[in-house]
Amino acid sequence: MHMEQEVRDSTQRVLDVAEALFVDRGYNAITLRDIADELGIKQASLYYHFPGGKEQLFLAMAERMFERHRQGIVAALDAGKGDLRAQLRQVAEWFSSQRPVKFITMLHADLAALTPEHKEQLAQKAHAAMFRPLRDTFIAAQARGEIRPVHPDLLVGSFLWLMDGLNYGEMRAGAPPRQVMAEELISLLLDGLLPRTTEATVQATPAGQG
Prior knowledge:
By secondary structure, the protein is an all-alpha fold. The chain has helices at residues 2-25, 32-39, 43-49, 54-79, 84-96, 103-110, 116-143, 152-169, 178-191, 198-204.
């Protein structure tokens, strides 16, 4: 039993390092040698954990990552239940607590390098983990009358693009704190770019004036 635990711990360590490298640099830019060097082991040792090589390792890493995000997103949405803005804030906070991941880029670039079978397997996992909970949330908000009817897939894609944008925003010198940027991006999605005082000004103008 002790040996089995050591193997599990060792496998998790491999996955941790693989996730850091794959997420930061992308599937095509990383080799098994890169991962082995980071771990301080021989490349051949990786095949003990993942006999299928780099693609099997990437698949296991991505499935574990998506499952972690699924649990985090579901918990975040439950915490803000009944209020879309509060829910999106909670999800943004969850993303901020995790290693930055370029989800949209990953789904379009990294998955293209996999075999068709693994590409489909991972796409379904990503959909169940990332898209479905958010899609259901936007549909529920539309049913409550919080937002106007817009195709939920478009809303989910836009929100995830905006969350990806946080990673690029942080790179700029003098950028505001991540929480502030997240709030602005959520406002951008829900309120648009029109000046926030426009509607209030129109409503405050007496009839026959202006």
